[in-house]
Amino acid sequence: MENMDIFNFNEQVEKVSDEANKHDLAMLLEEFKRGHYPNVLSKSAQFRDKYNDNKELIKVLLLMEAISHAEIEEYKASAEIIQQLYGETDPIKTSELVMLGELAFMCDYKLARRIMSTAVKQMEAVNESDRIKLARGYLVLGEIEEKLEKLVRAIKYYKQGLTYFQNDDKRDKYMILYLHFKIGMLYTEKNAKAEAVEYLEKAIDLAGDYPEMKINSYVSLAKLYGSNNDNEKAFPYLEQALKLLNDSTLTNTLIHAETLTEMAFYYFDQSKLDSAIPYYKKAITIYNQLKVTSRRKLGMIYMQYAYCLEHKEKADKHLAGKNYENAIEQLEKTNDPELLENALADVISFFDAGNNTKKKRQYENKFVKMTTAN
Questions:
Q1: This prediction's pTM
Q2: 1 has pLDDT over 50
Q3: Is 356 exposed, middle or buried (0-12, 13-18, 19+ CB in 10 A)?
Q4: Bridge partner residues of 5 (DSSP)
Q5: CA 208 to chain centre
Q6: Is the distance from CB of 273 to CB of 267 less than 8 angstroms?
Q7: Stretch 60-65: mean pLDDT, rounded?
Q8: Domain range 255-374, its CATH number among 1.25.40.10, 3.40.50.1950, 3.40.50.300, 3.10.50.40
Q9: Three-state DSSP class for 271?
Q10: DSSP 8-state secondary structure symbol assigned to residue 169
């Protein structure tokens, strides 16, 4: 099973195929490729009974079953098979350990951690000569710890993985860049500002041929400074990101909308409402074009946009009212009653100030219905 691609069984099936079983295996492989996983499970179980004297074939069938269980979200059953294969094979080749660890990643992070840790220790013990194989082991461990929300461990493993890539090897350039960005983002999650800035700035320096990664790094740094109420430091990163976004594959994507929102808030926070408006307007357009958008976030953006329209130098009360209503429409779809109550109070106040009795009563009724229901 050495060098098995867990999603491609062609080669492995061929290795264990013979005149007696080739028809059955070809049929099973076709079912697997088509994603007919329940059929794979039932037929594979039959074939394990039928060919129970062929240990290598049994292993391939069990692996196929493990993936099939994971694909239909039967994670416990998948993990049990992987645990069985991990426990029964002794001694076990490093390549098999890595394969089992990656497969376990689909269904049980803690099992994946245990298997991949063994694989990495085994590689270190024999002075594994393939640095990319070692790097991959550490990167998978980093990803596992990240999924388990063990950020300190994740950072440690990503850093260890990074040491196996070489600056003078062109093939390694993207991974070196990616890992600096990844580590920087994890430090951001830990609110370790200095470390996050160090790695994200390095990512920007390394991102010459990868403008999308440079954009992500600029925006991440801007958000980091913004979250620490240091908007003046955030501003130049937003400027640089927006310059690059217009000619990148990230135009009109979520990160474009987020960058525009951050820039809008930069001006909003300084009461430069006229300057904020075009950024809010464009951000809202993009958010509404995305397949998945946070209703809470969009609702808050509509509220800020409406406030700008209401209070800008030449107020546009009509358009402000429309956007306040858009905000309520979005926030009603969230599960945040406190936020919705506060927004309704602001909208009621807006229509009251404009002597729009009909709209005021409409939102008062919503407010009363909501508060009495709670």
A1: 0.84
A2: no
A3: middle
A4: 8
A5: 24
A6: yes
A7: 94
A8: 1.25.40.10
A9: coil
A10: -
